[in-house]
Amino acid sequence: MHNLKYLDDDDDDECDNGMELRVFASLEVLILDLLPNFEGLEKVERGDVFSCLSILKIAFFPKLELSCLPSLKDPDVSGRNIVLLRSISSLCGLTKLTLDGGNRVTSFPEGMFRNLTCLQTLCD
Q1: For the stretch 31-48, what's the b/e string if a residue is b when 16 or more beta carbons lie within 10 angstroms of its beta carbon?
Q2: Is 8 helix (H, G, I), strand (E, B) or coil?
Q3: What is the number of domains present in the chain?
Q4: 8 A C-beta contact, residue 63 and residue 38
Q5: Which of 69, 28, 26 shows the shortest CA–CA distance to 47?
Q6: Phi, psi of 3 (to 5 degrees)
Q7: Cα–Cα distances in Å, from 122 out to 52, 74, 82?
C-alpha cells in the first residue's frame, strides 16, 4: 500500500440507489503505519465518515493532514511534521495527545494549543 493516498477517495457520497453511503461509520480505533504517500483519511471531507473514531495511531506520514474528526480523543502520532501539527490544532475534542519521535520539529506552530481546550495529557 505504498501508493495509498486516502482511505476514502470517493468524491460522491451516494450509492447507486440514492442512499447515503457512510463508510467506516462504526470504526473506533485506527492504526496506520509507514504510508509515505498518505495524505488524509478522506479525499473530500464530509465530516461524518469517521464519526466514531476515538483512537488513532499514525506513524511516519510526511504528507498527512488530519480533517474533521469530532470524536477523536486520543491520537498517537509518530514522525510528526509541521503540517500534521497544524491540522491537529483543529481537533478540539482531544483529551490526550501523544507525539513520538520526529526530531525535525523543534517547536509547535503558533496557536497550536488554543483550540485544544479539552486536552488533559500531552506526552512525548
Answers
A1: ebeebeebbbbbeeebee
A2: strand
A3: 1
A4: yes
A5: 69
A6: -95, 5
A7: 22, 10, 17
Q: Which helix (H) or strand (E) holds 82?
A: helix 82-88
- Model confidence at 16, pLDDT cuts 50, 70, 90, reads very low
Nearest to 30 by CA among 65, 7, 55, 52: 55
pLDDT for residue 47: 62
Alpha-carbon distance of 110 to 17, in angstroms, equals 46
pLDDT tops 90 at residue 22: no
Cα angle 103, 105, 81 (rounded to 5 degrees) comes to: 100
**CB crowding 53-71: b at 16 or more within 10 Å, else e:** bbbbbbbbbeebebbbbee
SS3 84: helix
Amino acid at 54: S
**Contact 21/37 with Cβ under 8 angstroms?**
no
Domain region containing 53:
1-124
Of the ranges 6-20, 22-36, 109-123, which one carries the lowest mean pLDDT score? 6-20
